[in-house]
Every structure is written in C-alpha cells, then in structure tokens.
Design brief:
Elements (H helix, E strand, L loop, with lengths): L1 H12 L6 H11 L2 H5 L11 H12 L10 H5 L11 H5 L6 E2 L2 E2 L11 H12 L9 H10 L6 H11 L2 H17 L18 H25 L1 H4 L9 H4 L4 H22 L2 H21 L6 H21 L9 H6 L4 H21 L4 H7 L4 H4 L1 H24 L6 H22 L6 H22 L4 H10 L8 H23 L5
Antiparallel strand pairs: 1-2
Family: Belongs to the ubiA prenyltransferase family.
Membrane topology: Multi-pass membrane protein
InterPro entries: Protohaem_IX_farnesylTrfase, Protohaem_IX_farnesylTrfase_mt, UbiA_prenyltransferase, UbiA_prenylTrfase_CS, UbiA_sf
C-alpha cells in the first residue's frame, strides 16, 4: 500500500501544473489499473477510476479555460458582454469562457457561481436590468478574432465592425426615405418620359456616400476613446479595444471612407448634400465625442447629428427639380423644404427615448468611465426627456400629412406605432427604468423608426391614387401645366415643321 500511495501522491501535488492530456495519459499508463479497482477501507487516498475521472473533469477542468479553444482563440480570448475579458481572469476561473455570447459547453457550472453574484444576477433579472444584446460591432469583432490574422476576410470584417453597420443601416434608411418622399408629379405615369422623375443613379450615389460618411464618423468615434470603451461592457468588445486593428489602420480607414463618401455625394448628388455629409462627420467626431465627458448636452448634439441625414436625402431629391440656382438656400430653406425638416425633427425626437432607455442598464458604467449622461446625473429627468420627445413624434407625423407629404392613412398607422412608444416611455418614466420598463422602451424604439419610415413611403401623397388610376386605365391628369403646354405645342408644331421643310427643299 505504501507503493500505491507514492504512485498517487505526485498526481495530487502537481495537478495544477500538469496539462489535461499529460494528466490523462499519466492516469491511464503510469498507474497500474488494479490500484484503482481495489479500494481499501483503511486508506481513504485510494479512489476508484470512475470517481477520479469525474473529479478531474468537473473540478479541475472547469477552471481551465483553455479546453475546447483553438490556439488563436486562446491567444485572443473572446470578450463577452458583461465579462472582464482578460486572459488572467479566464485562466483563474473568475470568468466563464465565452464563445461569442454563449458559454462553452461542458465548462459552465451553476454550483460554482458565488452566492453573492447569484443573488445580484437574480435581483437584476427581477428588476429587468438584464444586459441588452450585443451590437453588430461586437459580434463582428468576435467573428473577426477567429479568422487568420493576415487574411483579407479579417481586415474586411474588422473595418465593417468599425463602421457600426446596424446604426449605419438605420441612417441610410432615413436618408433614402426622405429621398423617396420628395413630391414628384406623375409618380406612376406609364409614359415616364413625359414627366420628371427621381434618378436611380442619384439614389445609388446618395446611399453609398451616406454609408461611407457614417463609417468614417463611427471609426473616428472609436479611434478617439478606446481607453474609455474598455471600461464598459457595451463597448469593450470593439476592434480597437481588442487590438484587432491599430490606431493608424483605423485612421486610414476613416480618412479613406470620409473622402470617398463626401466625394460621392459631391459628384453624384450635389454640393449641398456633400456639405451636409462632411458636416455630420465633423460634428459627430469633433463635437459629440469629446462632449460626452463634459456635459449632458452631448445627447442633444448626438440627436442633431441623427437629424441631418433626412435633410441630405431631401436636398438630393430637391436638386433634381430645382428651378433656380440650385444652391443651399433653395434646397434647404425654400417653401418645398418643409418635408425634409419634418423628417429631421422626427429623427431628432426619436433618439431620446432610444438612447435614454439604452443607457439605463449600464448607467453605473457610464458614471465610472466618466461619461456625463443624464441617466445617472438626473435619472428622473432622463425619464421625462424620453417621454417628452416620444410624445413629440405625434405632431411631427401630423405635419407630414398637413404639408401634403403623406396621405390621411399615415395619420392612423403612424399613431399606432407612436402610441406604443409613448406607452413604453410612460412606463419608463413612472417606474424610473425598473421592472423591465427600460427594456420595453428600448425595443419599442428599435421597431419604431423603421416602421414609421416604411409607413411614410407607403402613404406617400398621391401614391395610391396613381395606382388606382393605372389599374382602372384612367387618364393621368397630374402633369405640370407648363410641361403639358410644352408637350401639346411640340406635338402640334411637328406637321408644320415637315411642311416647311418640304416647301424649302431644292428638289421641289
């Protein structure tokens, strides 16, 4: 029995310094199988083979986060939402190894969660303070970390993560919506050449240029604050924080995207739209980003940035039917520009219920990172502001109908989605963000913007009347008077022109 005890002792004393494969090989080959089969009641150190196997797999390997991870993933541990994300924390067992946003199978153990953390987690879930899902940039950073370091796929995915694709998509959607809502006569006229129409090529330049401007602004935003992003669960998975790209590379990407974006808008749309795109980059990166650590007014500046893209879309469409010089005064401050300003106001108002609810679950992280946000400086006012601007969406939608941008149906359909967001904003204010009210308002705001934009396009003034006339074969009567007269004159003058040419022919 003395020999048996000596054979087991080295395994227990050095268990923390032996890797998994070596330890299993040691237990299988170096230790005789009969030592584990024969158990003696006089020596409690000898255990069965099955019990030792369970002990090794459950107790030892639960703290060894390198199991199941490839070499690349182990060198660059995946940062999860709400976790520390450091290699030391993962190796010491203080953090659960994560793959993306899901724990690795076989490594989680509910019994290993400390009691105080479990109580805190259950309390947070009961109050509705569950962290919101990871954004697209965090998911793309996780995907990029699994790719080869020198591959083009990794570079493309990292640059896409820098651009915040989900936010950029919403901005492009609002820009395209404003472009399509610009009133153009005879929208569905079969003889489309007889009336002016919006150019599809201009729309391509508009969406591409707006996307590139958004990518440039978002990349500059990440470039200026990686130190503070690392302190927050919402932003610590960004590519600059994780080291997927250097500051020089991010600056090159932001510069190239900004130049190409503004250039596309200048040559493919008009100078006014290009100026607005460049102005948005400057305000977002040069004013909004540093102001987040100075004053709570940064939220209003950020909302102003969000309201500029609809003006860009409206100015792009107005430039195609401008009757004067087509400068910024005519495109932005004429009588026909009211629709663009209403859409800009809608985007400005929408951002307060959206951001105020988004920032509530991580208000303490904002405070510790030094960001001056209303959610922790004055939480009661944070709810009032969200409710106030949610209610403001009602008169803005009414204004779109009043000024003949949309039809009467938009009043009904938009009121439903506006009422839903106001209801959630009311709960958010009354409950001060607790009991799931912040999460409810966040998801209401996420759905509100694309739904209202799509409804506005479906209820564009004259759209359904044109479809009805086209289906019934009725004659379109919404040509511009000047163009109709010019068309009649050109038709009536053609026979006289042929007669004149015939009389003047030398052969006759």
């Amino acid at each position: 029995m003395l020999l048996k005890s000596k054979a087991i002792r080295p395994i227990k004393s050095d268990i923390d310094s032996v890797c998994i494969r070596c330890l299993l090989r040691l237990t299988r080959n170096n230790v005789p199988r009969k030592h584990f089969k024969s158990s003696s009641p006089q020596n409690g150190a000898i255990t069965s083979n099955s019990h030792l196997g369970k002990l090794l797999r459950r107790e030892y390997f639960s703290a060894n986060s390198s199991l199941g991870l490839s070499g690349t993933q182990f060198r660059e541990p995946v940062l999860s939402h709400g976790s520390a994300g450091s290699r030391d924390a993962m190796l010491s067992g203080n953090a659960t190894p994560m793959l993306g946003s899901q724990p690795l199978s076989g490594l989680t153990n509910d019994a290993s969660e400390p009691p105080h953390r479990r109580r805190k987690r259950l309390k947070a879930e009961a109050n509705g303070e569950v962290p919101l899902p990871l954004d697209a940039s965090s998911r793309l950073s996780t995907l990029s970390s699994t790719m080869p370091a020198a591959s083009l796929r990794r570079l493309f995915t990292t640059c896409l993560s820098l651009s915040k694709p989900r936010l950029s998509f919403l901005i492009v959607l609002t820009t395209a919506t404003a472009y399509s809502l610009y009133p153009v006569p005879a929208l569905l006229l079969p003889a489309t050449t007889a009336s002016p129409s919006l150019s599809a090529l201009t729309l391509v330049f508009l969406t591409a240029g707006t996307s590139l401007c958004c990518a440039s602004a978002n990349a500059l935003n990440m470039l200026l604050e990686p130190k503070f992003d690392a302190q927050m669960s919402r932003t610590r998975n960004r590519p600059l924080v994780r080291g997927l790209i250097g500051k020089k590379g991010a600056l090159i990407f932001a510069s190239v995207a900004g130049v190409l974006g503004v250039g596309s808008l200048w040559f493919g749309v008009n100078p006014t739209t290009a100026f607005l795109g460049g102005l948005n980059i400057a305000i977002y990166a040069g004013v909004y980003t540093p102001m987040k650590r100075i004053s709570v007014l940064n939220t209003w500046i950020g909302a102003l940035v969000g309201g500029i893209p609809p003006l860009m879309g409206w100015a792009a469409a107005a430039g195609q039917s401008a009757t004067g010089a087509g400068d910024w005064r005519e495109l932005l401050f004429s009588e026909g520009s009211i629709g663009g300003w209403l859409l800009a106001g809608l985007l400005f108002a929408w951002q307060f219920p959206h951001f105020n609810s988004l920032s509530w679950p991580i208000r303490e992280e904002y405070r510790k990172a030094g960001y001056r946000m209303l959610v922790w400086t004055n939480s009661r006012m944070n709810g009032r502001v969200a409710l106030r601007y949610a209610i403001l969406c009602f008169p803005i939608c009414v204004g779109l109908w009043w000024f003949q941008i949309t039809d009467q149906g938009f009043l009904v359909t938009s009121s439903v989605i506006n009422g839903w967001m106001v209801k959630e904003a009311w709960k958010f204010w009354r409950k001060e963000g607790h009991k799931g009210s912040a999460r409810g308002l966040f998801w209401a705001s996420v759905w509100h913007l694309p739904v209202v934009m799509v409804l506005a396009m479906l209820h564009k003034k004259g759209l359904w009347e044109g479809i009805w006339k086209r289906v019934n074969g009725e004659k379109e009567d919404d040509l511009w008077p000047d163009e109709e007269e010019a068309f009649d004159v050109s038709q009536n003058s053609q026979p006289r022109l042929h007669l004149t040419r015939a009389l003047a022919s030398p052969s006759n």
